[in-house]
């Protein structure tokens, strides 16, 4: 594969505020050691460490194609496309089959990726960068929660304090991307290696929390539960024959229906289901684990 021998993958599809779909994907590579084992190997074998760093530099880019030196910007503003030039996200990317010479294709592809990266992966601060700021904290580079602070780094290295891998960063504003992937999807992207140090733990927590988050806001969920409780009380008001179990089952059904009715689903999500896309991609098959059944079984072992 593009990054190595893939042992497994799991990705969830999420809709943004405008309804556009995007994917959060985890990939497990064959032979990849756990974070602590990798950290120990770095300390014992410089050759291994340099090989990993070279691989990271190959698969994770932080500048436009062909850049080999640190870029200094006069302005952080994203460059605009020349007047009359189409947005690279809306046109066909160069195809190898259309070129007789490989070098010509590589040159055309690099030029296309350069335009695409500038349009999609050039970071410009917005309210999203500072939405978790505490009162009194400045809205500046240092507090960008996405980590694009304008700093650069000529080579990939280890953080001496945490042991985390610090990527080579030649451009102060371009977010991490993989050239082949961004050429194929023609959209913004991010890519991270979950390696050694505290950064790995933080990244694992962030990704796990993000792909499992519930899409219904808390206030909407509480409003739905309140509505279901009210309707259920009205249904059984003055009814003497209904048992407690019947009322509880009715309340559960009404609660689920009320919450589902308040979930916003874009037409892109609907079409994805209709054409068989679903809401996730996985290399493995999983079985459902019903907590009630498991809990009862465990209790029988006491």
The portion of residues assigned to helices is 25-40%
The total domain count is: 2
Q: Structural class, from helix and strand content?
A: mainly alpha
Distance between the termini: 48 Å
Question: What's the helix-strand series?
Answer: EEHHHEEHHHHHEH
**Uncertain regions spanning at least 5 consecutive residues:** none
Number of helices: 9
Gyration radius, in Å: 25 Å
- Main sheet summary: 3 strands, antiparallel
**Strands in their spatial order, largest beta sheet:** 2-1-5
Q: What is the number of strand segments?
A: 5
Arithmetic mean of pLDDT: 87
- State the shape: globular
Strand content: 5-15%
Query: Oligomeric state of the chains?
Result: single chain
Secondary-structure blueprint:
Blueprint: E1 6-15, E2 21-29, H1 35-44, H2 46-59, H3 102-120, E3 157-158, E4 165-166, H4 179-185, H5 198-211, H6 218-235, H7 244-261, H8 267-274, E5 280-282, H9 291-300
Antiparallel strand pairs: 1-2, 1-5, 3-4
Task: Give a quick summary of the entry.
The protein is mostly helical. The protein is built from 9 helices and 5 strands. This is Helitron helicase-like domain-containing protein.
Characterise this structure.
- Helix 1 packs across helix 2 and helix 6 packs antiparallel against helix 7 (about 245-260).
- It is built from 9 helices and 5 strands.
- Strand 1 (about 5-15) and strand 2 form a beta hairpin.
- Strands 2-1-5 form a 3-stranded antiparallel sheet, with helices on one face.
- The protein has helices at about 35-45, 45-60, 100-120, 180-185, 200-210, 220-235, 245-260, 265-275, 290-300, and strands at about 5-15, 20-30, 155-160, 165, 280.
- It is mainly α and about 300 residues long.
- The chain folds into 2 domains: about 35-210, no CATH class; about 220-265.
